[in-house]
Design a protein that fits this description.
heterodimer, A: alpha+beta, 5 domains, 13-stranded mixed beta sheet, eight-stranded mixed beta sheet, 27 helices, globular, B: alpha+beta, Arc Repressor Mutant, subunit A, two-stranded antiparallel ribbon, 2 strands
């Protein structure tokens, strides 16, 4: 029969006197007495009643005191903020800029990390990827052989379902009744696709969808485009130029933005066999991605090994190795040479980079906050002394300054929300994302934001409050400045060194990124990327290439026309080649470029030796041209005229073309095999630089004539090539803003420190001036110290900056050097800005009248 | 003259009356019996504490019993100063009431 537990604990908490034991003993005795006489319930009521009555009293009195003190703290905080308006503005704007920066990056991180997580089986989905190894290079691809599905599923019990997928079919003509549409984002998949991925059905379901070759599934958006408000289920669409009828068997919710798979219409994979004229049971042909869903208890690394061996057993000649890539790695950690169907692919390194920057910027803002608060301390010393004389304990003062710093950090947070709200469109433009402000309300973000604020408030408040509250009233009221300033000064200077070090690294990084971008855009590529138009060939364009070519050449301003593949996109690797004196064991990869006899001149390539394909020679189909790298890869001396075999066609090498950068400068020049063909999927048109809009109009007319009704879509080769560096460009743009912000914040910090030190030395300056020092010498005196500290920051930050950016540049096979000029430029600009900041304050101090500073003595 | 509040007076009297058994629970019962209303423990502790501080009573720890959850009792004993105070109050009261005409509340 014990007393109520919780009430008992409360009671013991409430008794503040030293004799807790007899007091609670008394209560217990009465409780037991009551229990005997009136029963348990009444006793319980009595006990709780007693406790609650005292609780009310205790709370009332302590709350009354803290509320009234809190009101006083707030009032003083507001008064101080107003009184020192400039400092408050610097403080709040710095912190809110830092916080806003952090929030933006947090939103971005949240978006990046959240890819594909909506799939229920997220943890157990894998993509099969392949690696092709050869003696000269190794290529990784996101595709796997057609035959993987259903072979793996049948042979390995851990694999529950498997599907092939290939998207990216674009600009297809689709008819519904009278209406004609052109649609991008078509894809093919096996019916099991919906058993693996959780795309939600609005109409129909995963069981029935894609069951037959003629059934398709579309997204809600597409359904609305075709049918408006009508029910799409069971409707027939006519697909492509040959108008294959397809029945709609399901409608999906729109594909979530954070999905690496994006599509509008999904077809049964059986159709692709017709479109590609491919054998879907082939182990040699891999044009689709393969996804598998494993059992929850499956061991992925074991399965990995099994699959690798399985393929080897199947085909001992195989040159590719399959492995598994978890779904969670596809968005951020995928580093494949060719990564197909990976929408808005990210990079984990940028996640680390931007997290570091966010922490760095917040650190700088926090340091500023601390520095500026302590810098004001001299002005508050008398207040502290007065409060202590009137009976304030140290803890009361700590509380007071905490209230002040929390007040400022709350204001900063509110301001930073506002900043984020206005900056979000700009940030979206820079990062290519569609982040939404409302994402802040997500619990994950909200919690991390609040904790961020609390931590910032705590850390930046803790030092000033401890420092200020430690003043000795006797000294400060006598006018003696507190004695522990030396330690504080060193700490603050170290912090400034840290800030500037960080700024220097960022400025340097921005400089290097831009000079490398400049380098890659302007480097001679070995071909002329300018003014080449690339058109997809469809419909009538494809049927009569020679007439199309003639018509195009008749357009004034068109210089050359060539049927070929786009050399700057995906070019097919092959190892099925042999040449005179080849070691049968040796595997060499070459990339196959296909084009007609105008290819050389259209792209402005140069021959190293031999000749290019010619219009007048009929047997060009079995003639081959290599580039210099390919010749080097097979180690052939004087290759022209030597026999060469590609697939089953024996022929000879008729020429060697000079190396050119067909891909990005991230990688070395590839060994290229050029084969002849008059018809291919793209036509490339070299036009003159002048009047390009008129020329384009004329070309469009020809397009209209051959491919009526189709939208005229073209690309410039230059845009494709420049697009290789989009992610670097994006990074450079974002970093540029952060650099600017960091520099500003660091200058604010330096400014605060300069004012602090000027205040400390105001009497020294007064004495020096009254003894005849000039303004200039005073400015020099006050500035030299800081220049020294910035100098230290330079010394400490240059090696890591050079090291980090050197590693970044190693991503490129062709790169600029981290030049000395860049380093010197960085250092000089930082020094200049720093001196400017400091001398502003020094100038004010130097101009002050000695009378004002010395009248106390 | 040693001044006591009414509550202190009641508590002090209760302690004297209880003699060897004067710890908080019986003191409270005593006071409740005399005044005929409910007293919280707080209302007893505070005058008790004050009496001790003023030097009218002494306290010492007694034995623990099971029905108190193993907690010991604190016994109180009236000191000589306390007795003097009581006597003085009684004298003053008596002097005050002397010669007052009879009255009835009815």
């Amino acid at each position: 029969m014990n007393t109520p537990k919780i009430a008992g604990i409360l009671l013991r908490l409430l008794i503040q006197r030293e004799d807790k034991s007899p007091l609670s003993g008394d209560m217990e005795e009465v409780y037991h007495d009551l229990q005997h006489r009136n029963g348990k319930f009444q006793a319980w009521i009595w006990f709780w009643g007693q406790v609650l009555v005292s609780l009310r009293t205790v709370i009332w009195y302590s709350a009354l005191r803290s509320i009234s003190m809190f009101r006083n703290y707030l009032k003083i905080a507001f008064r101080n903020a107003r009184k020192q308006g400039l400092f408050t503005a610097i403080n709040v704007s710095g912190l809110s800029a830092g916080l806003a920066c952090c929030i933006l990056i947090l939103l971005w991180l949240q978006d990046e990390i959240g890819y594909d997580r909506f799939h229920k089986n997220f943890k157990n989905i894998y993509r099969v990827i392949q690696e092709n190894r050869s003696s000269n290079e190794s290529i990784t691809m996101s595709t796997a052989p057609f035959a993987s599905v259903p072979s793996f599923h049948e042979d390995f019990h851990e694999i529950l379902y498997s599907t092939r997928f290939r998207g990216g079919f674009s600009n297809w003509r689709i008819n519904y009744g009278e209406k004609t549409f052109y649609n991008d984002n078509l894809c093919v998949a096996d019916p099991e696709f919906f058993k693996i991925f959780s795309f939600d059905f609005i109409k129909g379901n995963g069981e029935g969808a894609l069951k037959s070759k003629n059934s398709i599934v579309i997204t809600a958006e597409t359904a609305e485009k075709y049918f408006g408000n009508d029910d799409p289920l069971g409707k027939i669409l006519l697909i492509g130029d040959d108008e294959q009828p397809m029945e709609i068997s399901g409608v999906l919710e729109n594909i979530p933005a954070r999905s690496h798979l994006q599509f509008d219409i999904i077809f049964n994979i059986a159709n692709a066999a017709d479109w590609w004229r491919a054998d879907l049971a082939s182990w040699k042909d891999s044009r689709t991605s393969v996804y598998i869903l494993t059992d929850e208890n499956a061991d992925p690394s074991g399965l990995d090994k099994k699959i690798e061996n399985f393929v080897k057993d199947h085909d001992p000649q195989t040159y590719y190795y399959l492995s598994l890539q978890p779904l969670s790695d596809i968005h951020l950690r995928s580093v494949l040479t060719w990564d197909f169907d990976n929408y808005m692919k990210g990079n984990i390194r940028y996640i680390y980079l931007f997290s570091t920057i966010a922490i760095g910027v917040l650190l700088i803002a926090g340091i500023n906050f601390m520095n500026l608060s302590t810098a004001r301390s001299a002005k508050r010393a008398k207040e502290v002394g007065m409060r202590k004389v009137h009976g304030a304990y140290k803890i009361d003062l700590v509380k007071q300054f905490f209230v002040e710093s929390s007040l400022l950090s709350v204001i900063s947070l509110i301001l930073s929300f506002f900043l984020v709200f206005t900056a979000l469109p700009v940030f979206n433009g820079l990062s290519g994302k569609t982040l939404n402000f409302s994402a802040i309300a997500e619990p994950g973000i909200l919690i991390s934001l609040l904790s961020l604020m609390v931590i910032t408030g705590l850390i930046s408040g803790i030092y000033p409050s401890l420092y200020l509250s430690s003043f000795q009233p006797v000294n400060v009221l006598k006018g003696i400045t507190p004695g522990n300033i030396r330690f504080g000064a060193n700490l603050r200077k170290t912090l400034v060194v840290l800030q500037f070090g960080l700024s220097i690294i960022l400025i340097f990084a921005t400089g290097v990124i831009y000079s490398q971008l400049n380098f890659v855009i302007n480097k001679p590529l070995g071909f002329d990327k300018k003014n080449i138009l690339s058109l997809d060939s469809i419909g009538g364009f494809r049927n009569d290439p020679e007439t199309v070519k003639q018509e195009l050449l008749n357009v004034p301003g068109v210089r050359k026309v060539s049927w070929s593949i786009i050399p700057n996109g995906y070019i097919e690797p092959t190892t099925d080649i042999s040449w005179e004196g080849k070691d049968p064991e040796e595997k060499v990869i070459m990339y196959r470029c296909i084009g007609d006899y105008d290819y050389l001149e259209t792209f402005g390539l140069k021959m190293a030796e031999g000749r290019f394909f010619s219009k007048d020679i009929l047997s060009e189909r079995t003639n081959y041209i290599l580039n210099e790298s390919a010749v080097k890869a097979i180690g052939m001396k004087s290759p022209v005229g030597k026999p060469f075999t590609f697939r089953d066609s024996e022929g000879i090498i008729i020429g060697v073309v000079k190396d050119f950068h067909q891909g990005s400068l991230h990688s070395k020049i590839k060994p290229i095999l050029m084969t002849y063909s008059e018809r291919f999927f793209s036509v490339h048109i070299k036009i003159s630089r002048e009047n390009s809009s008129v020329i384009l109009e004329n070309i469009e007319e020809i397009w209209e004539k051959f491919v009526p009704g189709r939208p005229f879509k073209y690309r410039f080769i230059e845009d494709i090539v420049d697009g290789f560096y989009r992610s670097e460009e994006k990074t450079g743009n974002i970093i540029k803003y952060f650099t600017f912000l960091t520099l500003i914040l660091s200058c604010l910090g330096l400014f605060g420190l300069a004012s602090f030190s000027a205040e400390q030395r105001i009497r020294e300056v007064g004495i020096r001036k009254s003894l005849g020092a000039t303004d200039i010498s005073i400015i020099k005196l006050l500035t030299t110290d800081f220049v020294k500290w910035i100098g230290i920051a330079v010394i400490f930050s240059c090696p890591p900056a050079v090291y980090i950016m050197g590693r970044w540049l190693n991503n490129f096979a062709y790169r600029t050097d981290v030049g000395l000029t860049m380093i010197i430029f960085t250092i000089l600009s930082v020094l200049f800005i720093a001196i400017l900041t400091v001398s502003f304050q020094s100038f004010r101090t130097a101009r002050s009248k000695p009378v004002d500073s010395l009248k106390y003595e | 003259m040693k001044l006591l509040s009414r509550a202190e007076e009641l508590v002090l009297l209760a302690i004297w009356r209880l003699q060897d058994n004067a710890y908080c629970v019986p003191i409270r019962e005593q006071v409740q019996d005399v005044s005929g209303k409910e007293w919280t423990f707080g209302a007893i502790y505070i005058p008790l504490h004050r009496l001790e501080k003023k030097g009218f009573v002494d306290s010492f720890m007694g034995n623990a019993t099971a029905e108190r959850g193993g907690r010991s009792k604190r016994y109180y004993k009236v000191k000589k100063r306390g007795l003097q105070a009581l006597a003085e109050i009684k004298k003053v009261e008596k002097a005050m009431w002397d010669g007052i005409p009879e009255f009835s509340i009815e």
